[in-house]
Amino acid sequence: MDKKVQSIKWLYLTVFLLPVLAMAQEKETKKEKETRIDEVVLVGYSKVSKADVTNAVGSVKADAVKDMPVNSAAEAIQGRVAGVQVMASEGSPGADIEIKVRGGTSITQSNAPLYIVDGIQMDNALSIISPKEIESIEVLKDAASTSIYGSRGANGVVLITTKGGRKKAITSINYNGYTGVRKIMNTIPVLDPYEFVMYQYELYNKGGIAEDITTFGTRYGSFNELENKYKNIKKRDWQDELFGQEAFNFTHNLSVTGGSDKSAFSLTLNHVEEDGIMLNSGFRRSMANFKYDYDISKKLKVGFNARYSRQLISGAGTSATGSQGTNRLRNAVRYQPFEGGSNVPIDDFDPNYATITNLVNPLILNDNEVKNNRTNDLLLNAYLNYNITKDLTFRSVVGYVQRDNSVNQFWGTVTSDARANNNQPIVQLTRFQTRRITNTNTLNYTKKFGDHKLDLLIGQETVQTDGESSNTYVKWLPTSILPNEAFSNIQAAIPPSGMIQDAAKTAALPPDRLASFFGRANYIYNNKYIATFSLRTDGSNVFGEGKRWGTFPAVSLAWKIKQENFLKNKEWLDELKLRFGYGMAGNNRIPSYLYDTFFATSTDYGYTFGSGVTPGATTGNTLANRNVTWEATVSKNLGLDFGFFNGRLYGSVDGYITDTKDLLILAKIPQTSGYEYQYQNSGKTQNKGIEVSLGGIIFNKENFTWKTDFNISANKNIIKSLGANVSANNDYYLVASGWVNNLYDFIAKVGNPVGTYYGYVTEGRYEISDFDYNSSTQTYTLKAGVPSSSAVANGSKPIQPGDLKLRDINNDGQITAADQTELGSAQPKFYGGFNQTFRYRNWDMSLFFNFSVGNKVYNANKIEFTSQYLYRDNNMAAEIADRWRWFDNNGVKVTDPAALAALNANTTMWTPPQGNYILHSYAIEDGSFLRLNNVTLGYSLPKGSLESLSIKNFRMYVTVNNLFTITGYDGYDPEASTRKNPLTPGVDYAAYPRSRFILTGVDITF
């Protein structure tokens, strides 16, 4: 086993097991029984006691995150629930958060769970909820618990309950605010000025072409002056200048709660101003949430909730989901690392340098690319609760959710987009709105008679979603126009003679309708044996006639072993419960109306008439499929809950197998059909794994407590079938991650996990011993039997000593596409997190870690920044300084084999390849890490010390987020994943660097 992985494992054991041993040895001085098993958790339209839960449910309560100063609820739960992975795609403000429950089931569609906020469906809910307003988060993980939600429940369900007021409570005001600063964690090492120019000397002089030699001398100087000039020249660290600013954060949380005999209310306000470490980037958010509950009578209760959120993400960032041409990071890495080298000052745009290098000064480019992404979210919901009898309750919930998103982008004159359009600025205005109306009605009957307890639920639900989008792309704006002027004056664009401006594109989103009927029966006998049955039927307009309805049954059983006579009186045992669940959940996450052929109008298919474009009509490139129907996930779960020593040690173990069939796949089809794609039900996947959660109170003294919580999960994902997506003779197809056009660097293969990298195996470099040398012509020729990687890696140029060498996998004596192989997977062997909480008198401290072991990361930056390919005068990654050398210290080319071998005796790196970008194992790195995500130290003033000021609580704290990461990964961050396709995870390409956040704050309650 890798020594680094072994050391991380030992660190986990040391940090967690030693405290457990200490707890076991400590003699209790104070018996304070914890009430964990008496907690109430939300499970499928109703609440149940944690002691009676029969399913796999992970829960995070407000107390677990109340002292964590983070802006996103997703950050607050990261690493806290077994089987749940929370990953930020990169380190930019407002970066996309990906949440996977038990590995995800789909291979081409979204694996995001279903979010339910106070009973209403929302998308990306964790990004718009302040952690301070969370009462609880329940994650339903197995189909036995998610099937009651039917549609979209296949990838798990996240139930979020926000805080409300309390009846008969005096008004309480709480303010929590903090301010801090972010700094970049690390940068990608690059060649210094002298190393850079010596590499350029080799590139320009190696071929012996007089024109190239002259060009080098004109640009950089003669060889004799290089050392003196470039070892003393001022170095420009572009990454530090672009990402090195101190990025400040100001966050304010204010809540007011209270209630009367019949009512309760809460008002929560949140405002965040966060600068990004990258110049001109940042995040702003303001939100308000008001909840009100009122008892009209003893039988009738009503309430409503209104939430509004506005957020702005500014900055073009470093990457996009597109190909290499959208990579902005490359300008900060590859731009020449010094002043001068051209007749144009370094801080001005150099059009000649841009032409020969495809690079722009990163600071100038950053000022010329402006992006403002604004999102407004509105949630309105109301409920009515009527107790028909003491045992029968009717509840109705109505909700309205609206999201308005607008993205304004500006490309100034120095950008490649503008340079391709008469050197004039360009503006793109994108608008998107979605609206969702939800109505849920349930009848709940509960009855206890003797040793029997019965809980019955029936319900009906409708969900309808609509929306519109528009896209306006305007070229040929005045060169002097400023971004904000351009956004509001697109009419200022004047097309050059003979050119026609693109027409705006508008579209209505296909209406999405869902009608559902569901029921659940829960039976408990003698407080020992529990059985739960549920059934849901969903009808979706996504599918055609005869395929619209899906039925999702589930059953779960539990045995409270602790209640048996042979254990009932064991004081050392608090809880021992065995659970089993079996259920089916569905997925319909594809666009509506794909079962029939519709025509759409667009200027993309139009023709010019006069000075305008007349739209044309087309059926698009997706072939209709009347037979497509529900994707189905069947899950089996076996779990054990336990608690010992009056709440001092508690936990659970779950094992599961999840099979998904009839995968909804956007499949490529033969173009002889007249179309390119078709949605199909094709293929099967399986996830199976084990989850362990442990917690304990290690010390529980009057003045000192120490609590710990730990979870670890292992999930094995495999593709069981690819159905019609592969030919009869194959069991795989290749997938392109998209960071380079036409590079198929992933493989979807039966028996493999999703996210398997596919490429060549790096064999180091060709050495002198691989060649025959002709002294008369001073040329090297590969020996017979030595495979040549010329066509694959070197642009078909002859292989020379020092060139990149690839493994001949099939032993046919040549390197071709047939020598590609599987290079590992983005799937970790195990992952999890652990938290340590300490309290000493009025001091408190917490340390929260998360970890991942065994996953591979595809460092695509490494491929780009160590490959020569199209352009000279580009800076390279620092390892290129250790490359194979052709010129001695006097600038003389060495060709003699003995002298050349001596010159390179201490070098290990190959000559940067000159062919197309390819994936080889050099870029596949171990992504294992252990991160100290949060450390907080707080002090609360003694109770009563501020009573004269009507202050109930006053706490001050200092926090460091992302304090350190133990990893062997060479890139910015081992968790980066910049591709959006579920088949291509773990690709680190042009990711926004992650930062360390140091802050201080106060928490005051009046």
Automatic annotation (TrEMBL):
<keyword id="KW-0812">Transmembrane</keyword>
<keyword id="KW-0472">Membrane</keyword>
<feature type="domain" description="TonB-dependent receptor plug">
    <location>
        <begin position="50"/>
        <end position="157"/>
    </location>
</feature>
<dbReference type="InterPro" id="IPR023996">
    <property type="entry name" value="TonB-dep_OMP_SusC/RagA"/>
</dbReference>
<keyword id="KW-0732">Signal</keyword>
<feature type="signal peptide">
    <location>
        <begin position="1"/>
        <end position="24"/>
    </location>
</feature>
<keyword id="KW-0998">Cell outer membrane</keyword>
<dbReference type="InterPro" id="IPR037066">
    <property type="entry name" value="Plug_dom_sf"/>
</dbReference>
<dbReference type="GO" id="GO:0009279">
    <property type="term" value="C:cell outer membrane"/>
</dbReference>
<dbReference type="InterPro" id="IPR036942">
    <property type="entry name" value="Beta-barrel_TonB_sf"/>
</dbReference>
<dbReference type="InterPro" id="IPR023997">
    <property type="entry name" value="TonB-dep_OMP_SusC/RagA_CS"/>
</dbReference>
<dbReference type="InterPro" id="IPR039426">
    <property type="entry name" value="TonB-dep_rcpt-like"/>
</dbReference>
<keyword id="KW-0813">Transport</keyword>
<keyword id="KW-1134">Transmembrane beta strand</keyword>
<dbReference type="InterPro" id="IPR012910">
    <property type="entry name" value="Plug_dom"/>
</dbReference>
<protein>
    <submittedName>
        <fullName>TonB-linked outer membrane protein, SusC/RagA family</fullName>
    </submittedName>
</protein>
<dbReference type="Pfam" id="PF07715">
    <property type="entry name" value="Plug"/>
</dbReference>
<comment type="similarity">
    <text>Belongs to the TonB-dependent receptor family.</text>
</comment>
